[in-house]
């Protein structure tokens, strides 16, 4: 589900670790991403297989216990 956020969409944002999804495939992980379009910043939580690209990018640190979103350039 896409939701509004107070994250500015630059640098990094700490997120609530209570954002979860029950992923149907054991190879998938729960990923929270932010998207910024003009002044509108939203975040979305999805299940994704980290062996594949997500919006053109490979996931980094998906096993980290730290709940932090980092800005990535060039997302499609």
TrEMBL record:
UniProt KW keywords: Receptor
One example GO MF annotation: metal ion binding
One cellular component GO annotation, for this chain's record?
Answer: membrane
Transforming growth factor beta receptor 2 ectodomain domain residues are: 1-75
- Name any one Pfam family assigned in the record: ecTbetaR2
Q: Which SUPFAM superfamilies match?
A: Snake toxin-like
Protein name per its UniProtKB record: Transforming growth factor, beta receptor II (70/80kDa)
Q: Which organism is it from?
A: Nothobranchius korthausae
Q: What is the lineage of its organism?
A: Eukaryota, Metazoa, Chordata, Craniata, Vertebrata
Q: Which gene encodes it?
A: TGFBR2
């Amino acid at each position: 589900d896409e939701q509004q956020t107070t994250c500015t969409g630059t640098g990094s944002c700490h997120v609530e670790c209570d954002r979860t999804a029950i992923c149907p495939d054991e190879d998938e992980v729960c990923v929270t991403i932010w998207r910024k379009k003009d002044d509108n910043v939203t975040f979305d939580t999805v299940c994704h297989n980290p062996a594949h690209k997500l919006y053109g990018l490979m996931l980094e640190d998906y096993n980290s216990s730290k709940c932090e979103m980092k800005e990535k350039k060039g997302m499609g």
